[in-house]
Amino acid sequence: MLRLGGKIGVNGHPNKPQQTRLVTPIMQTTQIPANPYRTHTCAALTPAQQGQNVTLSGWVHRRRDHGQLIFIDLRDHYGLTQIVCDQARDAALFAAAERVRVESVITITGKVVRRSPDTINPKLPTGEIEVQASKFIVESPADVLPIMVAGEAEYPEETRLRYRFLDLRREKMHANILLRSHVIASLRRRMIEQGFTEFQTPILTSSSPEGARDYLVPSRVHPGKFYALPQAPQQFKQLLMVAGFDRYFQIAPCFRDEDGRADRSPGEFYQLDFEMAFVTQQDVFNAIEPVLQGVFEEYGRGRVVTQAPFPTIAYDEAMLRYGSDKPDLRNPLAIVDVVPVFAQSQFAVFAAIAEASGAIRALRVPGAAAQSRKFFDQLNDWAKEEGAPGLGYVTIESEGGLKGPIAKFLSSEQQELLKKTTQAVPGDAVFFTADNNPLVAAKLAGKLRIKLGDQLELLEKNVFKMCWIVDFPMYERNEDTGQIEFSHNPFSMPQGGMEALLHQDPLTIKAYQYDIVCNGVELSSGAIRNHRPDIMFKAFAIAGYDAAVVEAKFGGMLNAFRFGAPPHGGSAPGIDRMVMLLADEPNIREIVAFPLNQKAEDLLMQAPAEIDDMRLRELHLRLNLPKGK
Question: Does this model's pTM top 0.85?
Answer without folding.
Answer: yes
